[in-house]
Amino acid sequence: MRLTFLSVIFVWLAASASLLLARAGKAMQFNLPGPDDQMRLLQLREWLGGRAWWDLTQPRLGVDGLVFHWSRLPDLPLAMLTFLFTPFLGPLGGQGVAVTLWPLILLLVLFLAVSFSAAEFRLGRAAPVIAAILLITAYRSVHQFDPGRIDHHNIQIVLAAVSLFGVLGAYRRARWAILPGLSGAVAIAIGVEGVPYAAAAALILALSALDGGRRSRDTLALYGLTLSGALGLLYLQSGLWLAGHAQSCVAFSNVYLSAGILLGAGCAACAFVFPRLGDWRLRLAAGAAIGAAALAAFLALYPHCPAMAWSPEGRNLTADGYERDLARLWLGGIRETLNAAEMARRDYGLLFITYGFPLAGLVAAGLLARARPDLRPQVMACAIFLGVAFLISVFQNRGAMFSQMLAVPPAAGYLTHLLSHARRQKGAAYAPLVAAVIALNGMTYILLPGVLPASDSERTREADEQAAHDACVAPEAMSDLAELPPGRIAAPINLGPFLLTHTPHSVLAAPYSTNLDGSIAAYAILASEPAEALERARMLEVDYIVTCPGASESGKIGRRYPEGLMPRLENGETPPGVRPAGGADGPLRVYRLQD
Fold first, then answer.
1. Contact, 224 vs 272, CB < 8 A?
2. Could you give the CA distance from residue 522 to residue 511 in angstroms, rounded to a whole number?
3. Is 177 exposed, middle or buried (0-12, 13-18, 19+ CB in 10 A)?
4. C-alpha dihedral over 333, 334, 336, 338, to 10 degrees?
5. CB 558 within 8 Å of CB 567
6. Is residue 485 helix, strand or coil?
7. pLDDT in tens, 88-105
8. Residue 591: helix, strand or coil by DSSP?
9. What angle do CA 150, 15, 116 make, to 5 degrees?
10. Hey, which residues does 593 pair with through a beta bridge?
11. What are 271-323's pLDDT values in tens digits?
């Protein structure tokens, strides 16, 4: 076991070294991978600067400022690392090390959780090592652990993996159910993404309890009580219910506290009822009825939340006509919310990258269950977690960051089974193993689109747009803008968090549904013809217009509204009432409004 543990650590060290070489320099300069990471950095700095734990106000964001909807919990480890390194490197150096190392620490936990989930199959010492190697190829998952990735997605991925490990351990000892209960509660407290995996754990433990045994009953009850109790405590510390988010569908609120309590109560009810029913069919019917009642109660209390949580089109857009079209222009282009059909229209190669490895993992789970009937409970648990993530990814491809990681344990288990079989049989028995190695790793599905015939125009355009965006959000690109007198900026939505962290200015737009009014207002200024745009800008007391020529938002607005203010500015026109204020030699264009 010690050698296996050290082997997993070695694989993590190799992966971490590769990620550090690629991203550490940018992370130390606070040029973080995405807008969510920049927003987390801003929230961390405000807390370290004296902002109260419960104060989530963002006065520099939106039309009138807003109360942000993120949990403070992910700020805690970042603050601890900052305090640890500040005496040696200063405040900024401490923050730089914190945002660089924290994702890699989380990655270590992910490697251990996934590897030892594979070890729960009891197929041999090779299983966790194979799992660690396969995890490196789960691109959509590991990419969330780049240095500088400090938003909450990587924490959610780790918590889902820990939940699966705890569920597998609960097949042996009931007290292991505490682990998925705690991790599920923390995941829900951090974000809505945690709800499906808490439900998956409940389903698995409820199915296990159909045998009517005392251990499985105790396991189910312990999970439900732990989940509900931990959620209650986390709700009290969150402060979101004090900050105007008590009924929010996108924050840890009464909505998801209710969901967790209903889920936990349903588990406890099943644990009470099942031993009193003599046949597994009756237990199944009772469990289905209890689950349906809990779901019906949730939908009756909050009927609008499922659509708002998972579909941009389901959000309540109060704007009409032109502004509604602008909102859909933004919401419809968010990459992580694209469904499978939309991805296929853009570039079918993305389907292989996103869905290939998870599908292979589901196939591996089926083959392993067939080859080893004694492992069917453990395989079923892995398949349910993976199936939930895969279904989510079909409707919103953000689910792929979970599904690729969750494909690893069944894939590693089946490869270990084939390896043992090949060692016993020798000769031709290695052929299925070689085929499985090719099919059961994420790298195959990353490379496959490159060898298939396809038009490269869309990929080239997206690569060029990303390069333009990366150039614009670099701290040095915003240095001149940061020296201008503080004012309000109308800029493309994805620039907002970078402008907030790298400059003293306020911004109208940032990519968050809680700031939809501010984002629509910014798009209306950028897309309207100059005279109307300037009138809108003055009504909102906008001081600066900032654009990033060549980035994706410039292209979207330019193609839809070619006579708009931003397309004209990027084509070299300077309408009356606007004058250049910097950035002529850099990627970012800055304009000041004149009275």
1. no
2. 12
3. buried
4. -30
5. yes
6. coil
7. 999 999 999 999 999 999
8. strand
9. 90
10. 578
11. 999 888 888 889 999 999 998 988 888 888 888 776 665 444 444 444 455 66
